[in-house]
Amino acid sequence: MNIIPVIDLLDHHVVHARRGERQHYRPIESSLCDSSEPLAITRALLELYPFGTLYIADLNAIQGKPAHVDEIAIIRRYYPELRIWLDAGFKEARDLEPWTGLDITPVFGSESLADMDAYHALTEGDAAHVLSLDFRGDQYQGPDTLRKTPALWPAQVIGMTLANVGSNEGPDYARMQQLTEMERHSTIYAAGGVRDIQDIERLQEQGVAGALVASALHSGQISRDDMMRISASQAN
Fold it and tell me: Cα(40)–Cα(7) distance, rounded to whole angstroms?
């Protein structure tokens, strides 16, 4: 089970995401450090555990505001070996241009896609990317053909339940089960609602390959020892 920490960037701060209600997000208060500055939060997460991948949601870019290119470039400079999955609200191919040279893996969120033509334009040339299938409540956000056609999915697919983000209510297990039963060649990652290591273990039992986690790391509900135990159990 691959645990991927998440940082949500809004107006130059890491914020505490709650239920996808972006207008209410406030700078994060973390037990890991006393700052909401992106590099400081990244450093604190990597001191907690040697994560190999960091997921960044650039909420400014997703909402059509100037992106956090400089902040993410600084993270890349300090941590050149860190894999960065970036959701910057990619809608069309030209949206990728500001990130050229930063060695990020783009996350194409279905909520940002107007139609299948937009998805095909973004993925032209079969460049490495991650697909996020975005849900608000029971409503899927994006081109329905994409949700229903696993043959179009890339190697990594996120099931993003926005209403569960920061809710402390647990993941949407039913949706994760549905996605793992549909996939044929993709690995599925859960996003939204992970509270503790028991949630991680239950997702693992469902065949979910990884989980995106934020609140449970900053609150200490998932500890370094928890992650070490999960890692050791996989090695065995």
Answer: 11
